[in-house]
Design goal:
Length: 252
């Protein structure tokens, strides 16, 4: 499929959806603490999305059973919310999306639950930093490989591992559009990122290299016992003057 370019008016509509999703993520973040269950976080997200006259984007997508993906510790992505309480020292990745006014927004963050190990805190920080390193190279005319390579370079310079099994994606009227957006690759290759390209850029990083395996529930994707995973995602538009963040806030 070709990359679907968005007009400035469409980008505005996506920014509106993205601003809503950022508010919802703030509400979820405020509830992350020892003792909270991920099902409670899911309820908070769903109610906040519906309250804003938006629609949860993940609920029912390919059959996914919840509004948020809640992925603790070594779970990389697609964890299903549960009644198991979060414990101090856990890390928890929350990924969610919504549709508003015909357009999608997609966003993920990894949170520390109470006090976490220095290594876990560094993993979360480096994963976020790699997103911003990627964003720095995005200007009209840059190639997709420039973005991928910038993310990979930062993660590996810190001694961590870029997950290969899952990648980011184009986004717009659909949650998943072309192109795929790998967090690894070579500069100078891939499609040109012209103004109007809208992407969900989402580095997923683990402590060390290991295959990511999907569990029996058909969703939960884990990198192996003790191999912590972090995720950081924003929806971004390429404009004539450079990248525009449609979810989250610049500087993190
Ligand atoms: Mg995504």
């Amino acid at each position: 499929m070709p990359i679907i370019l968005k007009s400035p008016a469409e980008v505005e509509r996506m920014a509106h959806a993205g601003a809503m999703l950022t508010e919802v993520m703030d509400l979820v973040a405020a509830a992350v603490r020892p003792g909270t269950t991920t099902r409670e976080l899911d309820d908070i997200a769903r109610e906040a999305i519906v309250q804003r006259s938006a629609k949860p984007a993940f609920l029912g997508l390919y059959g996914f059973p919840a509004t948020i993906c809640a992925s603790p510790n070594e779970v990389v992505v697609h964890g299903i919310p549960s009644d198991k309480p979060l414990r101090g020292g856990d890390i928890i990745s929350i990924d969610m999306g919504l549709f508003y006014d015909g357009y999608a927004a997609d966003m993920a963050r990894t949170f520390a639950v109470g006090d976490v190990s220095q290594e876990a805190a560094r993993l979360i920080r480096v994963t976020e930093e790699s997103f911003w390193r990627g964003l720095e190279v995005l200007r009209p005319g840059a190639r997709l490989g420039d973005l991928s390579a910038a993310i990979q370079k930062h993660v590996e310079s810190e001694g961590f591992w870029v997950v290969r099994e899952f990648v980011g994606h184009g986004i717009g009227r659909e949650m998943h559009e072309d192109p795929q957006v790998p967090n690894f690759g070579r500069p100078g290759v891939g499609p040109q990122l012209k103004a109007g390209v809208t992407l969900a850029i989402e580095p997923m990083v683990t402590l060390y290299a290991a295959p990511v395996v999907v569990s029996e529930d058909g969703w939960t994707a884990s990198s192996g016992r003790g191999n912590l995973a972090a995720h950081y995602e924003n929806t971004v538009a390429i404009t004539e003057s450079g990248p525009r963040l449609l979810t989250g806030r610049s500087g993190g």
